[in-house]
Design brief:
about 220 residues; nine-stranded mixed sheet; alpha/beta; 15 strands
């Protein structure tokens, strides 16, 4: 597998993957957030001509990851879809087939973009605990002091360099004081918000996860 980094929280370990995902090897759970499937179709419905092939690239990356890791569960931390406008019959069929194709259970923690959507074989769940992780879509305060909140929603990026040399790279962001880890958006057609410099940041550059200096 491509180069990754490991985050240790108490006695638990989380691998940060360059595919914009996190892997708990003990629980055998793969965490992803913010796929925003159907975004192109949502824009098309509003008269904005975007190509419709982005979903397949996102789903192929997910299937490649599950084929490599063989998780017991894939847990999506919200915004599986972009809007109900993009939840076409074709996308519904793909979502219904995902668990069998991945060979594991698919669980969705509902996000703001998922509200009101009816999925063929999936029921959005509220925030939940898995081991040492408190899993949510939007940032939340963990209900127990020893838990780490892992969430999506923010689409964190790290801004490196200046002027014409400036790069915006998707990143993981760990806020020690808030006990929170922000996951990068898994979907390709997503923007991003700069992660605060006080966070420990791991940027994703090509097929590597690189820890940036700065935070402690």
């Amino acid at each position: 597998m491509s180069s990754n980094e490991t985050l240790t929280w108490g006695n638990s370990r989380l691998e940060l993957l360059p595919q914009r995902a996190a892997w708990d090897p003990e629980l055998q759970v793969l965490l992803i957030a913010d796929l925003h499937l159907g975004k192109a179709e949502s824009f098309q419905a509003q008269g904005i001509p975007l190509p419709s092939d982005g979903d397949q690239g996102n789903l192929n990356r997910l299937l490649e990851l599950t084929a490599s890791l063989h998780p017991q569960q894939v847990l999506v931390l919200g915004d599986l879809i972009h809007s109900q406008l993009g939840l076409t019959p074709e996308l519904q069929e793909k979502l219904a087939a995902l668990p069998e194709l991945m060979g594991c259970e698919l669980v969705l923690v509902g996000g703001n973009h998922d509200r009101g959507a009816v999925f063929p074989t999936l029921q959005a769940q509220p925030s939940l605990q898995r081991g040492a992780w408190w899993l949510s879509h939007e940032p939340e305060t963990p209900p127990e002091p020893e838990l780490l909140n892992i969430c999506g929603h923010v689409h964190p990026v790290a801004v490196l360099g200046q002027g014409s040399d400036r790069l915006r790279l998707p990143c993981f962001g760990l806020d020690f004081s808030q006990q929170r880890l922000l996951l990068p958006a898994f979907g390709e057609l997503t923007g991003g918000h700069p992660a605060p410099l006080k966070m420990q940041r791991w940027v994703i550059a090509e097929d590597r996860v690189l820890k940036l200096p700065g935070a402690n």
